[in-house]
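Worked example

This section walks through a single chain of length 226. The input is the sequence exactly as stored; nothing has been trimmed or padded.
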Amino acid sequence: MKPYIICHMLSSIDGRIDGASLKGLTPAGEYEATGAQLNGDAWICGRTTMQQHFAEPQPFRAASDIPAGPQPVHVAHRAKSYAVAVDTVGKLRWSSADIDGDHLISILSERVSAEYLAVLRDLGISYIVSGDTVVDLVQAVNLLGEHFGIRTLLLEGGGHINGAFLEAGLVDELSLLIAPGVDGRRDIPAVFDGISRERSKAFPLRLKSVERREDDVLWLRYERVQ
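Given that input, the structure is written out below as tokens.
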């Protein structure tokens, strides 16, 4: 039931993904236009990216830290498209059950509070609780396919969630827009971050296509080598 997972990202030539640095280097809407060509029926981001762009400014604070423990999948309703947030302990505060028309699904660990889950249910947000202390990504994406019918999932960062998916063997394809610019700053997030230091070899990929886009942007597509 695992969806086909495409990591779709925009980066500088040196692999940095700071949006402010890249602003103005690509035509408006280029990331969204290329993403639409991938025909995903859901997209997924980590907590930091969701906090920066989509959730309420102040994080959720539960009155009690008692963990909810194992929970059944909560399907508020089925939809044509989904926005998925990985939010290990339930910090993201939402005001709506959708993002730009995409029904919201929250993926959490068993450390999340029962209070937070109740808030999600009241808002009509679906959720998956997977993993005891950290999110079990393998189980979670399989549950996305089983309970929501998601077949193609676009993984859209940040770098740490991308790295976690890659390390778990979940990335089937990389769709990378390379902006014509160099960032060069130290400690700026990269397309993939946080891979275990014990891994000494790069993950091999096979080139599917190269397309030169407007304003010297390159669109590279790679598939995972099995």
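What to look for: The chain is about 20% helix and 25% strand.
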